[in-house]
Amino acid sequence: MSGVLLSGYYGFDNLGDEAVLAATVAALRRQRPGLEIRVLSASPDATSRAYGVTGVPRAEARAVVRALRASDLFLSGGGSLFQDATSWRSPWYYLGVLAAARLWCRRTAVYAQGFEPARHTSVREGIRGVLNGVDLVTVRDAASAQVLAQAGVRRPRTVVSADPSFLLDPDPTPAVERERARWGSGALFGLAVRPWGDGRVLDTVAAAARDAGGRLGARWVLLPMQRPRDVEAADAVAARLDGATVVRGPFGPREMLALAGGLDLLVGMRLHALIFAAAQGVPIVPVAYDRKVAALAQELGDEAPLPVEGLDARALAARIDAAAADRPARRDRLRRVAAALRERAALSPALAVELLS
């Protein structure tokens, strides 16, 4: 057995994708101790050090081909790799690597990915053509399974799993404890923002947070999920909030998971910040910048999130008020749902390792 090659948005300092990678590597090794794992990464040396894997430069064609030829199993995922909302070229990179894996790897799988309807007909056709030839497809939510069915992906059967980061355990390192001590005591609300448009959305989020936080006697902790781009957005929002703290880090995914677990609620414009909180029973108030946020809310049994388009400060503040008022019941429900999603998330590595038999 030569091992497994993983492909995803790895090595870009995005804590959500790094959480997916960390959870995937750990789960595969629990299933098959000693398994050799290679990862296509934008920062192969850093990926190697962080996860004890062999990092492969994802943009070097010869290195990618060598890794494909040396691997028995290729896993494409997680994340939302085949979407063309942010870039028309991006899905073609991942589809191209997956198509090459079908030639050179013994088995191939789409692993716990999220899907949304592609905007371009050529991308939809590419997804249908490539995915119908792999050995396994698992997706992170029921909405993604529906998208694939509508796209004409029929073989193999699509298995609804869950985001791999639900398998991740928090790591309260000394650095986490020091960061947590900076926050002080009292009600602590988290805020995970990202750059968006001309800044008016961030102004709206800041206004809602200032209103609700002042009324509820809470202080805000801002959690940048992708460095450095989220830090500037976090600083801009924090400047409008009395006593707000920006987490400087850098922290790894397990550490950020531990920090999120110490909050009383979290308002999020980042999918994995919302997952980090919900996985530990911390009530969430999502702002839907993408269909995947609505899909998460559906998986959690929450009401449909407020969309980023036309976001209203009073409506968002009202959502924060409601989440704060109902914290005990929401915590209990989220813990139950998160436990079920953790069980579902374990399906992807178990089924993937079966392909090596």
Task: Summarize the structure in words.
The protein has 357 residues and is α/β, with parallel strands linked by helices. It has two domains: 4-161, 3-Deoxy-D-manno-octulosonic-acid transferase, N-terminal domain (Rossmann fold, 3-Layer(aba) Sandwich); 174-341, Rossmann fold (3-Layer(aba) Sandwich). It has 15 helices and 13 strands. It has a seven-stranded parallel β-sheet with strand order 3-2-1-4-5-6-7, with helices on both faces. Helix 6 (142-151) links the parallel strand 6 (136-139) and strand 7.
Please give a quick description of this structure.
The protein has 357 residues and is an alpha/beta fold.
Number of helices: 15
CATH topology of the largest domain: Rossmann fold
Q: What's the name of the CATH homologous superfamily of the largest domain?
A: Glycogen Phosphorylase B
SSE class: alpha/beta
Largest sheet: 7 strands, parallel
CATH class of the largest domain: Alpha Beta
Whole-number average pLDDT? 96
Order of helices and strands: EHEHEHEHEHEHEHEHEHEHEHEHEHHH
Helix content: 40-55%
Residue windows where pLDDT falls under 50 for at least 5 positions: none
Distance from N terminus to C terminus (CA atoms, Å) equals: 9 Å
Give the overall silhouette: globular
The neighbouring-strand order within the major sheet is: 3-2-1-4-5-6-7
**What is the count of distinct domains?**
2
